[in-house]
Amino acid sequence: MHNHYLLFLSIIKRTERFSMNSTESIQTKFVFILYILFFVSLSTSFAADEVIDVGSHRELFVDRFIVDKLEDATLKLHAPQLMPPVTPARPHGHYATVLNAGDKFQFYYRGDTKPGNHWKKGWEQYHDGEVTLYAESKDAIHWTLPKLGVYEDHPTFPSGNVVLMNEFLITHNFTPFIDTQPGVPAEEKYKALGGLAYQPNQHLEVKKRRGPGGLKAFVSPDGIHWKKLQEKPVIPEAWGKYFDSQNYAFWSESEQAYVCYFRRFIKGYRGIARTTSKDFISWTPFVEMNANLPNEHLYTACTQPYFRAPHIYFALPTRFMAKRGAATDILFMSTRGSAQFDREFTQSFIRPGIGKSGWANRANYAAIGIHQTGPAEMSFFLTGGRRYAMRLDGIASVNAPLEGGTLTTKPLKFVGNELEINYSTSAAGQILVELQDDNGKPISGFTLDDCEPIYGDHIARTVKWKNGIDVSSLKGKPIKIHFVMEDADLYSLKFNPRAGSNQVVEAGKTLD
Q1: Sheet holding 371-374: strands in order across?
Q2: What InterPro entries does the database record attribute to this sequence (predicted)?
């Protein structure tokens, strides 16, 4: 590609040697045009044939990253199912976080030492009374409020489940995460950011007494006992305007850095910005994500690595409609590392619902945390203790009608021995899978005619052809995957390194 580019430049320079009226100049310009057309064709072909290395990563259809062609098929956003409320109903306040510590789930949410307190009753005393509360669960559904003993008993919180208080502005949106970076010190296994920025020319006396705003960093060995990493904010208040949202950070294995998505006003609308860090102290200049559609405010970026495919980040921001009584709903967006958010789906992911409660001022905020809560189920949470459930990988799919549709991927390179898919069909539907070379030619032994018809509903099923399931002869080579689908949804695919298992996971059971 580089050599063709140099040739293209040499043609341009050659044409500059001739006068506009010479016959040779006209001939050269004709050749020049042909070379331009050839160069454009070559560039387009090169872009189209670029091979994506998927390794053994799970790939989802929340975007078109591996999609080349869809014929009579579409990308479909699925609606989550509202489940019975968690017990006891949590959180009482906004900006909740649910972490999976392996042996338990940990729920952080905002409370206030004075029930019913409001900033209109006094901005400083309102923020001074905020605390971070804590609950635990084995299944993320039934929660307990442990008596932690971190602070002296407080009459408003008789359970003693306070993990942070007396931290002005921090407890408004204190948002922890479990640091998965290899080699992180045990005393810093948990990290968190919290804080606000003062609005211009407001509360100047408070700022003088209390110090500047911004996001401050905390660390903890257990997610219960917290200490400041340093007194100075690690992300300055000038970046945020005004951080009054949930500003979440996490360690990204794919980017090999800490990543933070935070609230910022962008062109007059509440929006999202992003910054990264190698040490959780020094952060790169922020980048505005420009995720807003026209007249759209976005609260609570809620951007996090998807636990089954952490190179893909899921975002569940709150869309705020200021001119509709401050009504809110939940959107779904995705991004892959440093890229901008993908807005493949612009419709609401979770609507406000029936009744007044969902349409109240700022009534719908998603918690940080998407977790597996059953063999084939994952859950996430909203304010008021609401839990929503979906199938694993089930936020979006490639969907085809009974009349049939096809998906062809871009050229892929993989590592593994088997092709696993997450899919569902109707009783009449089916899926056939064909492996093709990078020119779209079916590969012998892996054609549609060789494929064992796939139907049913499985979180994990290995594709089988007449000669078996082993695709290791093709690993490292560019291939395309061609799906012919009838009344079916394809949620994800993955090349597995194991060989010979032919394992099927169906509705919570493992079948051979």
Answers
A1: 81-83, 386-391, 377-382, 371-374
A2: Glyco_hydro_beta-prop_sf (IPR023296)
The CATH class for the domain spanning 81-393 reads: mainly beta
* CATH ID of 52-78+397-511, from 1.10.357, 2.60.120, 3.30.1360, 2.60.40: 2.60.120
Please enumerate in sequence order all residues whose Cβ is within 8 A of that of 478, keeping only pairs 6 or more positions apart, or say none. Answer: 49, 51, 411, 412, 413, 437, 438
* Beta strands at 396-400 and 418-437: parallel, antiparallel or unpaired: unpaired
Rounded Cα gap, residues 322 and 327, in angstroms: 7
CA-derived radius of gyration, the chain:
27
What would the pLDDT profile of 371-410 be if each residue is shown by its tens digit? 999 999 999 999 888 999 999 999 999 999 999 999 999 9
Q: Please tell me the distance from the alpha carbon of residue 226 to that of residue 264, in angstroms, as a whole number.
A: 26
pLDDT averaged over every residue in the chain? 89
Indicate the SS3 state at residue 232: coil
Task: Tell me if domain 52-78+397-511 and domain 81-393 are identical in fold.
Answer: no
Sorted by where each begins, the domain ranges of the chain are 2-48, 52-78+397-511, 81-393
Distance CA 297, CA 292 (A): 7
Contact yes or no for 74/407 (Cβ under 8 A):
no
pLDDT digits (tens, 9 = 90+) for 109-158: 999 998 888 888 889 999 999 999 999 999 999 999 999 999 999 999 98
**CA pair distance 6, 482, nearest whole angstrom:** 36
Cβ atoms 127, 213 nearer than 8 A: no
Gap between the Cα atoms of 29 and 23, Å rounded: 10
Over residues 433-446, the mean pLDDT reads 98
How far apart (Å, rounded) are the C-alpha atoms in residues 78 and 193?
32
The string over 148-172, giving b where at least 16 C-beta atoms fall within 10 Å of a residue's C-beta and e elsewhere, is: beeeeeeeebebbbbbbbebbbbbb
CA separation for the pair 216, 118 (Å, rounded): 24
Integer Cα distance of 484 and 404 in angstroms:
7
Beta bridge partners of 219: 191, 227
204 φ, ψ to 5°? -65, -40
Whether the CB-CB separation of 53 and 375 falls below 8 Å is answered with: no
Backbone angles phi, psi at 49, to 5 degrees: -95, 10
Task: Please report, in angstroms and rounded to a whole number, the separation of the first and last CA atoms in the chain.
Answer: 48
For 233-272, the pLDDT digits (tens) are: 999 999 988 899 999 999 999 999 999 999 999 999 999 9
Which residues lie below 8 Å from residue 453, measured CB to CB, with a gap of 6+?
A: 430, 431, 432
Choose between 31 and 478: higher pLDDT.
Answer: 478
* pLDDT band at 498; cut points 50, 70, 90: confident
Question: What is the residue type of 24?
Answer: E
Inform me whether the pLDDT recorded for 40 exceeds 80.
no
